[in-house]
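I am writing to request your help with a piece of structural work I have in hand. What I wish to show you is a protein chain and, alongside it, a tokenised description of its three-dimensional fold. Could you please explain, in whatever detail you think fit, how the structure tokens follow from the sequence? You will find the record immediately after this paragraph.
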Amino acid sequence: MIGQCGLIWQPWKNRQVLEIGYLFNRKYWHLGYAAEAAAACRDLALDRLQAEEVCCIIRDSNEPSQKTALGIGMKPQDGEVRHCRGQDMPHTRCVLSRRLREGQEA
């Protein structure tokens, strides 16, 4: 197994948001697997499940994951500090709405 990618409900600023989460074995980084899997989840969420939006919640220091989210059409929308592994870490929520995506494809 090279890793995992899927849709999950996540808490964000006192509400639940639909997130694409991806985690791959370091050996398989920078080979396009995360982008391919994330794009498939994006299409599932927006096209088949008719979700209004889908997002990725990413640590500010995680540039490869930010690049993946931007590469599948997401844009940074907002941020918050989350407490993880005993420390406060800034996170950014990158978002793609169905409405915006349809406008991009037109």
